[in-house]
């Protein structure tokens, strides 16, 4: 059975966003997952461009949390 995972990446400054570091983060995370034999579906990739870690209003992180809650509810119903 292949483990399906989600990944989350964020850059907090305009300079980081312009340097495409979020793409580099995602590439590295996907490569790591592949090397571990894990599966990352496109709809399980979450990102926030230009959002500070101190800012809790992060749409990508919110979607990741929502997805986790949905999975937990589905599993508890068994």
List keywords for this structure.
single chain; 78 residues; alpha+beta; two-stranded parallel sheet; 3 helices; 2 strands; flat
Question: Can you put this structure into words, describing what you see?
Answer:
It is a single chain. By secondary structure, the chain is of the alpha+beta class. The protein has helices at residues 14-18, 21-36, 59-77, and strands spanning 7-11, 45-49. Strands 1-2 form a two-stranded parallel ribbon. The protein is flat and about 45 Å long. It starts with 6 loop residues before the first strand and ends with a helix.
Short summary:
This protein is α+β, with helices and mostly antiparallel strands. Helices cover 51% and strands 13% of the residues.
Percentage of residues assigned to helices: 40-55%
| Distance N to C terminus | 18 Å
What low-confidence regions span 5 or more consecutive residues with pLDDT below 50? Answer: none
Strand order of the largest sheet: 1-2
Overall shape: it is: flat
SSE string: EHHEH
Residue fraction in strands: 5-15%
Count the helices. How many? 3
Structure classification: alpha+beta
The rounded Rg comes to: 14 Å
The largest β sheet comes out as: 2 strands, parallel
The strand count comes to 2
Average pLDDT, rounded to a whole number, is 83
Write the layout of secondary structure elements.
Layout: E1 7-11, H1 14-18, H2 21-36, E2 45-49, H3 59-77
Parallel strand pairs: 1-2
